[in-house]
Amino acid sequence: MAEDRPYSKTQKRLRDAGLRLTKQRVALGRLLLDGPNRHVTAETFHDEALSQGIQVSLATIYNTLHQFTDVGLLRQVTVNGGKLYFDTNTSEHPHFYLEDEERLMDMPSDAVQFTNLPKTPEGTSITSVDVIVRLTSDET
Predict the structure, then answer these.
(1) pTM to 2 decimal places
(2) CA separation for the pair 129, 126 (Å, rounded)
């Protein structure tokens, strides 16, 4: 069966998203998208790829993460005004940010509820609302 071949699920996801199947894209897609949802930065994902024997530049990692985001396979979450995380869970959901560890964690999507959003300026509409609850360790 075709679905039983290694990488067949990753290849299908990439193909369905309209991406050309390159060796690096399939290898990076398998590493990132096969398995549980998670958050990565370009730097942490680059280190992971190298540790798995995928010889790839940091620039290629950035390009691939942005391509995956552009086609809806990833979601970007910006923390602290510039630290960019890529989230494999593309649904709308809030996050915890553990400041001491610089780690992003999902919160259940129903953990935060909005009962009132502001009226938007004329000619605009809300596309999303990002919620990040920052945490620090109680140990001093």
Answers:
(1) 0.85
(2) 8
* Amino acid residing at 118: P
Pairing of strands 95-98, 132-135: parallel
Question: Could you read off the pLDDT tens digit of each residue along the chain, which spans 140 residues?
Answer: 444 555 578 899 999 999 999 999 999 999 999 989 999 999 999 999 999 999 999 999 999 999 999 999 999 999 987 899 999 999 989 999 999 999 999 998 888 888 888 999 999 998 888 899 999 988 75
Residue/partner pairs of 86-89 with CB below 8 Å, 24 or more apart = 86/32, 86/39, 86/40, 86/41, 86/42, 86/45, 87/37, 87/38, 87/39, 88/32, 88/33, 88/37, 88/38, 88/39, 89/37
Give the fold, CATH level 3, of 2-135: Arc Repressor Mutant, subunit A (1.10.10)
Cα–Cα distance measured from residue 88 to residue 40, given in angstroms and rounded to the nearest whole number: 9
Neighbour-count burial for 4-32, b at 16+ CB within 10 Å, e otherwise: eeeeeebbebbeeeebeeeebbbbbbbbb
